[in-house]
Amino acid sequence: MSQPTEGTGASARKQVQEAFPDIAPLVILKADVQRRTVRYTTQALARVDPAVHQLNGRWIYTEKADSIPESLLLRDGTSILTAPLATAEDPYLVDVVDGRTVLMDQGEVMEDVEFWTKPDFYDKFTSSGKPMWHIAHARPQRIEFNPYSNCRFWDNGKGCKFCGIASTYTRGKRESSKPLQLDLRDIAETMQEAVKQKGRFTSVFLTGGSIPQGPEVFDEEVDLYVDVLQAIGVSFGGQKFPSQLLGSAFSLKQLERLYSRTGIMSYTSDIEVLDPELFSWICPGKSEWLGYGPWKQRIVDAVGIFGKGFVTAGLVGGVELARPNGFPTEAAALKATLLEAEALAQQGVGTVACVWVPYQGTVFHRQKVPSLHYYIALARGLQRLRDQYGISIEMDNYRRCGNHPDSDLGRI
Amino acid sequence: MGQPWQDWKDLVRAGVPAVVTASDGAGEPSAAHTTDLEVDADGFLVYPEWFESSRINQNLTRSLWFDRRVSVLLLDPEHGPVELRGIPRRAIICGQRFEAAYRAAQAAHPDTDLSTLWLIQVQEAVSRSRASRQQDQDARHAIVAHLDRFAGARASA
């Protein structure tokens, strides 16, 4: 792949569509919207119905309670996780044209979009009086719990440079008394309420900030997840249920404890960037407590517990090109990333990437994201590896997560 | 009801069984039998696919993504089959409309999941009865026939 010479906006997208005729234009559009984010017109916001659409959200990376829709759906059912970004230079526009809510780019209608709808539990309260939207976050088909809202890697300032967990928590604590940790009873009650809505959810997702403390590194984090999963499991009679835990890189002993004592079915750990030197630079806390090699090995070990197709490694796609220490070219970044992803795939691990957005509240907030061409090449490369090594991505696909253009490609 | 292929919406509303067919990237077809087609208020043919992991679901996704036509054969017991051809335009997998369909599906088949409501824009409806296919061939491909049929016709003339 050569260094990108693509233009901006619509012309760049058209170039990429021509370069990747085997990739669905909707997936290309989605990745580009994630890169460039969106802005809503007054007319589009007038279509928001607070009784129907999801406006509030308390989760680990953001907290909002305003009149802006949480996110969007495309007509193939795919979510676009995106939000207005103050520093965005070239955002898509969500507007109303001929009575349709549409994505616009440089005056041209791209696609119809819909706002996410609010789950029924969002308007309910726990017996302790808390709004249930403070306890769980919703995507169109996924309910998400963040049991622990901070990341202890920030205790000594060594959190990941692209990550806004700590700043989100600090602001939430100051502005809306956001608690550090969720109460197990609130979690159990919210889960029980959520499953009353038939046809809404297809999976339970857990993630939170890393807690490296404990007799063995991450023991406290594992203990918390066991407790939370058992509270959630009350709704499912103690059996396994469609679920994903995105946690730190746990040891075999810890993974066995998680799997044997709870209903969890799949496991992801975010290695973030597939290069040891960049891992040390971008993720100094992960590097300090465990290191690149052990982090990767623990993800591989998890396949022995959860099974092939039930373990993924997560990347912040594009962060490997962050300046000044990132790969010098997109071609070099793609080659190195896919080489490491192949090593994981050979051992049964699928790799998924999200589209990096340098949000405010992160060390990297002034960085520039890579080209659309890069993101599509990365998405295609990751899905081809899963195809080549027979790794299903059902655990982290468009229904479960919706934040990975590469796993969207696994639909066909 | 007029000619059956002109009233495909009536056939669908009458609940005739049907076979939905779509192809994968290599042209390999997959078919699914259904008795649950509907026509929605916007005129789309609505096909509820039960199974997320099915080949037909994957192939319908490909058809939506790349504007490829799919075939739906309506099995009209009275006038013979009618083939619809069109393009899936929307996959509804969540939201109020999906949940209403899900509840109805659960009421009818409590042991079965529901994956997707496929909205297909029908572009063409053609009768596929034996008689109409023979008429079509005779009219447009007069040289394609067994000679004895011609001989028999002359003898009886």
What is the compact description of this entry?
Chain A has about 400 residues and is α/β, with parallel strands linked by helices. Chain A contains 13 helices and 16 strands.
Secondary-structure class of chain A: alpha/beta
Share of β-strand residues of chain B: 25-35%
Tertiary shape of chain B? elongated
Number of strands of chain B: 7
Mean pLDDT of chain A: 96
The total tally of domains of chain B equals: 1
Please identify which CATH superfamily of chain B we are dealing with.
Answer: Electron Transport, Fmn-binding Protein, Chain A
The stretches of 5 or more residues of chain B where confidence is low (pLDDT under 50) are none
Secondary-structure element string of chain A: HHEHEEEEEEEEEEHHEHEHEHHHEHEHH
Account of the protein in words:
The complex is a heterodimer of chains A (412) and B (157). With 412 residues, chain A is an alpha/beta fold. Chain A folds into 2 domains: 36-115, no CATH class; 120-411, Alpha-Beta Barrel (TIM Barrel), CATH 3.20.20. Chain A contains 13 helices and 16 strands. In chain A, helix 5 (184-194) crosses helix 6 and helix 11 packs parallel to helix 12. By secondary structure, chain B is of the alpha+beta class. Chain B has a single domain, classed as Roll (Pnp Oxidase, Chain A), CATH 2.30.110.10. Chain B is 34% helix and 30% strand. Chain B has helices at 8-13, 55-66, 95-108, 130-140, 147-156; strands at 18-23, 29-34, 38-39, 45-49, 70-74, 82-92, 116-127. Chain B has a 7-stranded antiparallel beta sheet with strand order 2-1-5-6-7-4-3. The mean pLDDT of chain B is 93. Chain A binds chain B through residues 22, 24-27, 52, 73, 75-77, 114, 117, 140-141, 197-200, 394, 399, 411-412, and chain B through 24-25, 52-53, 58-59, 61-62, 64-66, 89-96, 98-99, 101-103, 106, 114, 116.
